[in-house]
Design brief:
Elements: H1 15-37, H2 44-68, H3 74-94, H4 99-121
């Protein structure tokens, strides 16, 4: 059972970026499932790698969208992106220590990010979005 489910109410009114956010929900749920289904957390390193790569891709797309729509708080938003990317890199550097601890931290960090940043801060530019979400 997923920890957090994507809901159409979470849409920021941009189909591409909504799909990106849905992928982040998937990664959170993958980490959660990995911890809940077995005592082994061997998939956590793979999930952290994918999360790192995917957030870099997503952040570039989202920041370009914010530039195109002249989002007034872009600098603060980009700073939040950099802080999150740094946090993921710190988790990656710790992943060899105790994967269960890292897995728990990843679930907390990503869950808080989705609830706080994606579902709150990203809504700040949703009214500027020009494409309809499905």
């Amino acid at each position: 059972m997923p920890l957090l489910r994507w809901n159409p109410e979470f849409s920021i009114k941009n189909e591409e970026l909504d799909q990106h956010h849905q992928r982040l929900f998937y990664l959170l749920n993958s980490a959660y499932d990995s911890v809940m289904e077995s005592a082994e957390t061997h998939r956590i390193n793979t999930i952290i790698e994918e999360l790192s790569d995917y957030t870099n891709y997503h952040f570039c797309s989202e920041e370009e969208h914010m530039r195109q729509t002249h989002f007034h708080a872009i600098d603060d938003h980009i700073a939040q992106h950099r802080e999150f990317a740094h946090t993921i890199e710190m988790l990656r550097s710790r992943s060899h220590d105790n994967d269960l601890d890292v897995a728990r931290d990843l679930i907390i960090v990503l869950g808080e990010w989705l609830l706080g940043h994606v579902l709150k801060d990203d809504m700040g530019y949703s009214e500027l979005s020009r494409s309809d979400a499905k």
